[in-house]
Amino acid sequence: MHPAVSSPLSARQYGLTLIELIVAIAVLAIMATVGIPGFQQFTARNEVAAEVMRIKTALALARNTAVTRRRTISVCPRPTPDSLVCNFTDWTHSLVVVDGQVASGDLTDGTLLKVLEGSGGPTVTFNRSYPVRYQALGWAREHNGTFEICGRDGKGVKVIVSNMGRVRIGGEADGAPAC
């Protein structure tokens, strides 16, 4: 018989050494230090992009509905779900698409067509104190303006509604939003 000899290659090691654990924690700390600020900027940019999409969706829906129904369609912010008036100073609230003029901000003047919930993230302002209103031909004549969307990181974007009713994102020539 052969004597039982223990070889170092056959022994199994379970667990980590203290040095391996310290190296792993150091690598994790470096990755977190580099990654977290980048992730915060990423989420701030995505919040602004989502808000731009929400506004563009509401305006496109209103314009298409105005042309399809051959009626005046308005878009304005509603502070609470049971509110019967629009609040033209804060466009971060839910956006409502209304069949009708909504001249004074009174939602009982028209029929509510769609509600696009507010995101609660970036701040949104509009440089007019009245709703965006599309006429039967899809024009926003005399109800055009500029939305300014400002994110958490102080950067933002402009969404511009022309007299013809078209919506575009502001470029360098339009100036930076006042965030």
Low-confidence stretches: none
Q: Helix- and strand-based class?
A: alpha+beta
The CATH H-level homologous superfamily: minor pseudopilin epsh domain
Biggest beta-sheet profile: 4 strands, antiparallel
Count of DSSP strands: 8
Query: How many helices does DSSP assign?
Result: 1
Q: How many structural domains?
A: 1
Reading the helices and strands in chain order gives HEEEEEEEE
Shape: elongated
Compute the CA-based radius of gyration. Answer: 28 Å
Instruction: Kindly state the percentage of residues in helix.
Output: 25-40%
- The CATH first-level class comes to Alpha Beta
What is the name of the CATH architecture? 3-Layer(bab) Sandwich
Mean pLDDT score = 87
The fraction of residues in strands falls at 15-25%
What is CATH's topology name?
Answer: minor pseudopilin epsh fold
GO cellular component, one term: type II protein secretion system complex
Transmembrane segments: 14-36
Organism: Halomonas daqiaonensis
InterPro entries: N_methyl_site, Pilin-like, T2SS_GspH
